[in-house]
Design goal:
By secondary structure, this protein is an alpha+beta fold. The protein contains ten helices and 17 strands. The chain is elongated.
Length: 408
C-alpha cells in the first residue's frame, strides 16, 4: 500500500492548496501528512476526500501531547500493520461507514463473476439490458488515464458536473461533491493524477457524448470508485448496472485485484459486492498528556454519536433539508415525464410523413418517448425518424416498426 494515491504528493499538495491547510509531518507516523485543526487536533491531509488511507507507526513515534485524527481507514488495509506497543502512544478505532468491494482477482472474465454473483434469471436480465443498449445506441467505453489533452479533460468534467446536477435535482437531495470548493478540488486534482496513471475517468459514450462517468483512483492493484454518475434518460436501459459491468470487465482485463466502491451504504453496492468491510477513524493520542487524552476520548464520543444517528438514517433527512434550502428554483420540467404519467404507443396509419415536422429524438421534449420506443422495439437510434404530429403526439418510424407515441 506504499503507492496509496491519497498519500501521493499531488493529492496532498492540491488538497492543502484548495482548502488552505498547511502540511506538516508527525514523527513516527509514516505514509501521512497532517494539518493542525482549529481544536488543536492534527488531522490527516485529504480528510474525508480520500477513499481510504494507509499508514504505519514507527518505533520512534512520540506525540508529545498531540492528538491525531486519521479519517477513512478501511479495515481490509489491516492498518497499522504492527500493534501499538510503545508507552508513548495509544490508538482508538471508531467504526464509521460501511464499505463494499469486488474481489476482481478471483475472476478471469466478467461472465465468471456474474455466474458467481447472480442467479440465472438476474444474469439473463443484465445481459439483455447490455444487448439492448448496444443495439439501440452507438456505445463506446473508454478509461481515460495517462496522456489526455486538457481540452478533452475539461469537456468531460463539464459533462460530469452536468450529469451530477441533473441526477441529484431529480432525487431532491443535496450532494456535497457539487459544492464549489469540493468540485474545484476534484477538478484540479484529477487531471495531474490521470496524467501520471494514479487516476482515471471511465466514460461510456453514446455517439461520442458521455452518458456515464466514473472518477477512479488507482494503486498497484486496486480501483477506487470515487464519484460515479449516469444520464438518467437512459435509466430504462439500466445504464447504472451496465456501467458497473463494463468497469468490472476493464478491471479484470487490466489485472486489478479489487474494485472498491468505497464508503456508504447503497443497495447497488450490496448487490454487486463480494465483500463488505468497515471504514474506521483512528485517533492517536499521548497517554501521558491529560489534554491529549481528553481530546481523543471527546472526538471518539462525537463520532460514535454520529454513527448512531447515521444508522437511524438522519443523514438522508439532512441531505434533503439542505437541498430544499439551497435550491432557489424548482423547475417542474426537471423531471421528464414527472408524476404518474404513462407512455402510450399505438400503431400508426400515417402513410406519408413528408408534411410533418421532423425533430431530433434526443430533444428533451421527446427523449423519454424516443428511448421507450427504442427499448420496446429493439430499434437503432440512428435508424429512427421522429415527427411531431399534434397535441403531444409523435410519430416514430423505425426500420421495422412505426408507432405513434404520447404521454398521458
Amino acid at each position: 500500500m506504499t503507492n496509496n494515491p491519497f498519500s501521493s504528493e499531488i493529492f496532498s499538495s492540491i488538497w492543502s492548496q484548495c482548502f488552505g491547510k498547511e502540511r506538516e509531518e508527525i514523527r513516527g507516523v509514516s505514509g501521512l501528512q497532517f494539518y493542525k485543526g482549529l481544536s488543536g487536533v492534527y488531522i490527516n491531509t485529504g480528510k474525508t476526500h480520500t477513499k481510504g488511507v494507509h499508514y504505519a507507526l514507527e518505533n520512534d513515534i512520540e506525540l508529545k501531547g498531540k492528538t491525531c485524527l486519521i479519517y477513512d481507514v478501511p479495515t481490509y488495509f489491516k492498518c497499522p500493520s504492527t500493534p501499538v506497543t510503545t508507552s508513548q502512544v495509544r490508538l482508538l478505532k471508531i467504526r464509521q461507514y460501511p464499505g463494499f468491494l469486488i474481489e476482481l482477482g478471483q475472476f478471469t472474465t466478467l461472465n465468471e463473476y456474474l455466474a458467481q454473483q447472480f442467479k440465472k434469471s438476474s444474469r439473463y436480465k443484465l445481459n439483455k439490458y447490455f444487448r439492448r443498449l448496444k443495439q439501440c445506441f452507438d456505445i463506446e467505453s473508454t478509461m481515460y488515464t495517462g496522456e489526455l489533452p486538457q481540452e478533452e479533460y475539461d469537456s468531460i468534467f463539464r459533462k460530469f458536473r452536468e450529469l451530477l446536477e441533473k441526477r441529484f435535482q431529480e432525487k431532491g437531495e443535496h450532494n456535497n461533491n457539487l459544492d464549489e470548493s469540493e468540485w474545484n478540488f476534484y477538478q484540479q486534482v484529477a487531471y495531474p493524477m490521470i496524467k501520471n496513471g494514479k487516476a482515471g475517468l471511465f466514460v461510456i459514450a453514446d455517439k461520442g457524448e458521455p452518458i456515464a462517468i466514473t472518477l477512479t483512483y488507482f494503486n498497484e492493484d486496486i480501483i477506487f470508485d470515487a464519484i460515479t454518475v449516469f444520464d438518467t434518460d437512459y435509466s430504462k436501459f439500466h445504464l447504472g448496472s451496465i456501467n458497473i459491468m463494463m468497469l468490472i470487465e476493464w478491471g479484470i482485463n487490466n489485472k486489478f485485484k479489487i474494485l472498491d466502491f468505497s464508503k456508504g451504504y447503497f443497495d447497488y453496492k450490496v448487490r454487486w459486492a463480494t465483500q463488505q468491510y468497515d471504514f474506521e477513524y483512528h485517533i492517536l493520542y499521548d497517554p501521558k498528556s491529560p489534554i491529549s487524552q481528553l481530546r481523543a476520548h471527546g472526538i471518539a464520543s462525537f463520532f460514535r454519536l454520529k454513527q448512531y444517528l447515521r444508522e437511524k438514517n438522519l443523514n438522508l433527512f439532512w441531505n434533503k433539508l439542505i437541498f430544499l434550502f439551497r435550491k432557489k428554483e424548482r423547475e417542474s420540467s426537471s423531471k421528464t415525464g414527472a408524476g404518474d404519467s404513462t407512455i402510450v404507443f399505438k400503431d400508426s396509419e400515417i402513410k406519408d410523413s413528408s408534411n410533418l415536422v421532423k425533430i431530433d429524438g434526443y430533444h428533451p421534449q421527446v427523449i423519454r418517448l424516443f428511448f421507450e420506443f427504442l427499448y420496446l422495439n429493439n430499434e437503432d437510434a440512428k435508424n429512427v425518424s421522429v415527427f411531431h404530429i399534434s397535441n403531444g403526439q409523435y410519430l416514430f418510424q423505425g426500420t421495422t416498426t412505426d408507432k405513434i407515441g404520447s404521454v398521458n
